[in-house]
Amino acid sequence: GQNIDQPTEMTATEGAIVQINCTYQTSGFNGLFWYQQHAGEAPTFLSYNVLDGLEEKGRFSSFLSRSKGYSYLLLKELQMKDSASYLCAVQDSNYQLIWGAGTKLIIKP
Amino acid sequence: DTEVTQTPKHLVMGMTNKKSLKCEQHMGHRAMYWYKQKAKKPPELMFVYSYEKLSINESVPSRFSPECPNSSLLNLHLHALQPEDSALYLCASSQAEGSGANVLTFGAGSRLTVL
User: Choosing among B46, B59, B103, which should be mutated to test the A contact, i.e. which has the most A CBs within 10 A?
Assistant: First the structure.
């Protein structure tokens, strides 16, 4: 079967760094996405990784290891507005998106 | 224009009502999607339209009927829904289905309550 695992909830402090992990087992792999979703709002695209390594985009970075079936999203200099759910999603061999359940990130002052 | 617009934002309907959700994008995207999302759950794919043709129906009950009148519009017709169909319905679009970095742009969603 296809499976994506991420922690249900994480808590971090404003100004700190947090790493949200995602492990996956899918039928093929055509890239991994991270989306951010604030409560009651639509998901918004954060990052896409298809090759191994780190992609940096401002305060957010995403890492991929295809051999380990593993990715993480790194958020630096946390701000209160970063409180949201972070969804990991993998495109399988048919380019269908398999979604993780999401990680709710709580930022405390 | 980099947005996907959904109407209405909120909808309350009885189990015997017929209503429609509407979605519009003007980014020239050729793939459009309907997702259903329950609280604290990831989005569940319902339908995919590619070049205005239905390409994926994820075994959705017939009380949900999608329609793609043209490349910019996507509708979801609702009839005889059940209370368990209450959810956030998200429309999304992307440049093309089945491509590499197939980034989805989501609308703000229509929150549906079935009484």
Answer: B103
